[in-house]
Design goal:
Shape: elongated
Strand order of the largest sheet: 2-1-3-4-5
Number of helices: 9
Strand content: 5-15%
CATH architecture of the largest domain: 3-Layer(aba) Sandwich
Radius of gyration: 19 Å
Helix content: 40-55%
């Protein structure tokens, strides 16, 4: 953590996008209240950073390769000793994501659609021991499986509901067939279904009620 004689907030950033990493680096480096210690491209490397160094705040994405934000928070629950406070900074608009972040021990949530000033305010608040989340009606159960899906998985689910084949989806999204299969495997797991027919039925029941 930050040394006793310094008020600097030590931060590690993890995001799949080099542009986001660079943008946050510029933002933090330009403010003497913060010290950017390291950046990571995925959740696994972020966890390695926790093991190798000490810092105050982790700013992580929700949709990351190898290990996503949800996986990072679940792994951190199992860790012993001091760990950084986590702010999830994401473009995922799933309505249940902030709730998951809170339930898994995250300290803050900031959508990428918000201004950089909002992110700065969130960092300061979390460093002071506060929690920062959008309003959530906690009396309602957080059991929306669609909130677990990444943006890409949501695109694939819509494509499935339109009757597109894997080959058509790969062509439309300009990704490989293997990538389509990888995303579908994760999608089926998150929706607790076995195949595309069950996934489509789940989607239609939730989004196109009679």
């Amino acid at each position: 953590m930050s040394s006793p004689d310094s008020n600097t907030i030590d931060i590690v950033v993890a995001d799949k996008s080099p542009l986001i990493q660079g943008g946050l680096a510029n933002l933090l480096d330009g403010d003497d209240r913060f010290a950017l210690i390291a950046t990571a491209a995925d959740g696994e490397r972020f966890l390695e950073a926790i093991e190798r160094m000490s810092f105050d705040i982790g700013i992580i994405g929700w949709d990351m390769p190898y290990l996503d934000g949800r996986g990072v928070l679940k792994k951190m629950i199992e860790m012993t000793g001091p760990v950084p406070r986590i702010i999830v900074y994401t473009g995922n608009s799933g309505p249940d994501v902030p709730r998951q972040v809170m339930q898994l021990g995250g300290a803050g949530f900031c959508p990428k659609s918000e201004s950089t000033e909002s992110l700065i305010e969130t960092i300061i608040a979390v460093s002071e021991g506060r929690m920062v989340f959008p309003f959530m009606d906690m009396s309602k159960p957080g059991n929306d499986p669609f909130g677990l899906l990444t943006g890409r998985e949501q695109e694939l689910l819509i494509a499935l509901s339109d009757g597109n084949t894997n080959v058509q989806i790969a062509a439309d999204l300009d990704i490989s067939l293997n990538t389509v299969k990888f995303h579908l495997k994760n999608l089926y797991s998150k929706l607790n279904v076995r195949n595309r027919a069950q996934a489509v039925a789940c989607y239609l029941k939730a989004h196109r009620p009679e």
